[in-house]
Design brief:
There is one protein chain. The chain has about 210 residues and is mostly helical. It has 12 helices and no strands. Helix 10 packs antiparallel against helix 11.
């Protein structure tokens, strides 16, 4: 019995699980490394989304395309913007040219990183380990020149999305990129209108944009 029959039923499950052994078995069985699933996602994209840095490194070493786009127009870097180790690996490849790439809903890697509610394991009140990980991703993307004022199809920037989480730490991380705090989304709201947290409102309204706590 083949290894992938014992563990992963297909190469995409192997990537989701981060199993380098199973991925290698599928490659030996003539699976194309950039073969997409029914949503256009490759093994590299799935390994990146689930935060499997070792699998991402393995697939990149085997020649996986770091600039693939799926059926929604999302790029690999967007999928990898939720985990800092994965993000760092991808930014060292040609994927860096997609730092401001947007999917059909307008999400860029930076906006994806700020979208804490996309973390499947997150519980109300925020899992702090997830928050810390995302902040590191936001800071790294900004250091690599990500455009902080890119907006979604709804006109929402990373700052707006960060404000809507009611997290001072998220807002402070985005403010380091000197965003336009006056941007207005399609519903006529600014970042400060999207938060119910008084501390976040102060951070957005202070002269320097960063609340000292």
């Amino acid at each position: 019995m083949l290894a992938h029959e014992e563990h992963s039923s297909n190469p995409f499950d192997a990537a989701r699980a981060g199993s380098c052994e199973d991925i290698l078995t599928f490659l030996f069985d003539d699976t194309r490394i950039d073969e997409p699933n029914n949503k256009g996602n490759t093994m590299l994209m799935l390994a990146a989304w689930y935060g499997h840095a070792k699998a991402v490194e393995f697939l990149l070493a085997k020649g996986a395309n770091p600039c693939h786009r799926n059926d929604d127009g999302a790029c690999v870097l967007q999928f990898g913007s939720r985990n800092h180790d994965v993000l760092s690996l991808l930014l060292a490849t040609e994927a860096v040219k997609d730092i401001d790439a947007q999917d059909y809903e307008g999400y860029s890697p930076l906006i994806q990183a700020a979208n804490i509610y996309s973390a499947e394991t997150l519980t109300p009140g925020h899992d702090m380990s997830v928050v810390v990980e995302r902040i590191k991703c936001i800071e790294t993307l900004l250091k690599h020149g990500a455009n902080v004022d890119v907006v979604t199809q709804q006109g929402r920037s990373a700052l707006m999305i960060a404000a809507s989480t009611n997290s001072v730490a998220f807002v402070q991380a985005i403010l380091k990129g000197n965003p336009n705090k006056g941007l207005v989304c399609r519903k006529g709201q600014r970042a400060i209108d999207l938060t119910t947290n008084a501390a976040v409102k102060i951070a957005l309204d202070t002269e320097y944009g960063v609340l000292k706590i």
